[in-house]
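Revision sheet: structure tokens.
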Amino acid sequence: MNTKLQELADLMFPNVTKTIEDYEKMYPERDLKEGACVTRFAPSPTGFVHMGSLLSAFEDYKVAHDTNGVFCLRIEDTDQKRSVENGIQGILNDLKNFDITPDEGMISETESIGNYGPYIQSERMEIYHTFAKYLVLHDLAYPCFCTASELDETREIQELNKERIGYYGSFAKCRSLTIDEAIAKIKAGEEFVVRLKSPGNFNSKIVLHDEVRGDIEFPENDLDIVLIKSTDKLPTYHFAHLVDDHLMRTTHVMRGEEWIASFPIHDQLFSIFNFKKPKYAHLGLVMKIDETGTRRKLSKRKDKEASVEFYHKEGIPKEAVKLYLMTIANSNFEEWLDNNPKGDLNEFKFDFKKVSASGTLFDVSKLFNISKNYLSKQSAVEIYNNLLKWTEEFDKEFYDLLVKYKDYSINIFNIERENEKPRKDYISYKSIREFVFYMYDELFENIEYEQAKITDKEEIKKILDVYYNEYMDLNDKDNWFIKVKEMCDKLGYASNIKEYKKNPELFKGNVADVTGLIRVALTSKNNTPDLYEIQKLLDKTRIKERFEKYINC
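Predicted:
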């Protein structure tokens, strides 16, 4: 071993006491079945998960669980400026809301599970420094003392001469420092970063075998990239990726397409250490078409639908969100779902070949439609139980009514539910209140009535009085409608719609106008589920009260 390099390495990393071999023993190869995948979701602790991140986490989780592997949650906090208080817990809460829980990694701000931690990068300083020290000892890394102004000057020269931008070749000034010069600068207290001494040749080619995009050819990396920063001595993303994914035995790195250009750096780092390389899948960005018709990246700053918390607050069922995520994750999922309408999402296997490489267009309307379909298939009891959980957190007034009128509420939700084609009114748990509020007297105060076809006050009173006192029969649905038609004939309204259309001038209106009046008087709405079922639940006393309320409004 070169004694001068040893002196330099000890000076740069005085607190390192372990070797790479020590860590290899601490974090051995995982004992998993052949084909099992180890994936990781590695967000920054910003306390916020957006839909693009949720999609990534969902895909990582799915790949690991489809193969009986391991899904790991690792926190990448090397950029300390982005970290916020309780940021980890915010991420965990968002993931938990969609049943995405780590098999290994962080489970709270301070707790983790698994034998391959720490799972917060800032707590792995000693590990990174051990690997960086190894590179210095083998003349594959060096201290760089260039100031920000010197780097800016180099960049300006490169731009002026239309050279490649970066720290390489003759532009890598500190690479040519002798070991003694570097030692002297460190002893003099000069700040430094640790740079890779790249052995690459830009004119040579390497190939990325991308799981989504196929083979992509790149020039070999020749940049002397920064491995360890100067201020906090934490690693850059590139170096942390190498160390963490190697020691955690990650088999598949699934990340956004913006990282494709970094592959030559990562490939080179794995080669230098002679580590087994993970497989890479670079996923397309989540896009949207904005109000100007422009296709752009979904923005957590501009788009409320980018926040996963939005769906939780809106009461979109997490199962519906996951179904939607799967439709944009794999192009063959919708067909599978059509063929398996009651199939468990866990039965569908994620396929890298069915991932779009061109990016995914986020369609919130489609998500809402999936939510409608999902809610329409739930039983009334399931609707009640899930709504109860949601209202307890977000709508205390409605929650109290649901608790007070449990059986009654379940019967409300069951109207037109157990049909071959159940109604699809509900978009979310939040939306249910607006569709059923009129069934609760406590919510039927100070309401505004929609306008019925029949508007004459005297005629309204006459119809409602005659209906209530003479023709309202709620013992049998078929008989109820027969009686309503009999009333229409008595009061001058066509009981047969076809007859009315042929000779409208012979009638005051038709049976639909009459039932529409009854509907508005009882619910304030022109469009509701089955009117007969609504009346059955309201009972005669409340029906009379509502008729009087409408007549006097």
